[in-house]
Amino acid sequence: MYKPGKCKACPLRCVEACPSGAISVSKNETPPLRFDRSLCDNCDRFDCVKVCYTESLQVSGRWYTVRELMRILARDHQYWGSEGGVCFSGGEPLLQHQFILAVLQACGHSYIHTALETCAHVPTSDLLEVLPYVDWLFADIKHMNSDMHQRETGVDNGLIMHNIRCVLDSGWNGRLIIRSPIIPGFNDTHENAEETAIFMKEIGAREINLLPFHRLGASKYEQLGLPYAYARQEPPSPDLMMTLKRVYEARGLACYLGSDTPF
């Protein structure tokens, strides 16, 4: 990740350190560094990061063993309070299904409350395998229309709907909360909310969390040299969020706005 605001005049050791020649300099432009991401994306050495003393170049993410991660959780456990726990989010945590399973099992042995946030577009067997070790599950429904879902996310919603049904049919005794990020022009209609509510009633889901769209991730795309498709997308208005909330409540469902999910 490149943070140009931290990039100061220096001996440009990052350019010399890169074994692939992926970094070039334009002293008359801001930011001064350019990256050939086709070369960067295949790098696993990160020599440029190691020599950047301003921390303009950083690696986002690192490898952990289960033991290392549990040591961190144990260290912080006392600060969570009686209602605290660990939430595994992402990205998609179930893309590292075996690791998450092992950590969840370790949390259970340590009496740590667990929550998992998933897009639910994962192998059904992976989801059901971790489920016994999860206390709360947040699963996304982004759109009820499969074609619209395919257009905006790149996949249809068939596997997602199937997985949510399987969770509720599994006999799992945890708490399932459906989540839907509300994006104006995509899934903010009364019709989509009504169809989602009907689906939830049909399968026995009782709670939904509506999240207003935000652009907090835009800076990460910029730092990774990626285009951000939603750069001009506006968030939904508070009035719209309340209108959608009433659709679910009219169907007898609990509906929470934003990050406020009651215990």
Question: How would you portray this structure in words?
Answer:
By secondary structure, this protein is an alpha/beta fold. The strands form 2 sheets. The chain has a 6-stranded parallel β-sheet with strand order 3-4-5-6-7-8, with helices on one face. A two-stranded antiparallel ribbon has the order 1-2. The two termini are 37 Å apart. Helix 5 (97-109) runs parallel beside helix 6 (124-130) and helix 9 runs parallel beside helix 11. Strand 1 and strand 2 form a beta hairpin. The protein has 2 domains: 4-50, no CATH class; 66-257, Aldolase class I (TIM Barrel, Alpha-Beta Barrel), CATH 3.20.20. The mean pLDDT is 93. It is globular, with a radius of gyration of 22 Å. The protein has helices at 13-17, 37-40, 47-50, 66-76, 97-109, 124-130, 146-153, 158-169, 190-203, 218-223, 238-250, and strands at 23-25, 33-35, 86-88, 114-118, 136-140, 175-182, 207-212, 254-257.
Would you summarize the structure shown here?
The longest helix is centred in the last third of the chain and has 14 residues, at 190-203. The protein is globular, with a radius of gyration of 22 Å. With 263 residues, it is of the alpha/beta class.
Fill in the keyword field for this structure:
263 residues; 2 domains; six-stranded parallel beta sheet; two-stranded antiparallel ribbon; globular
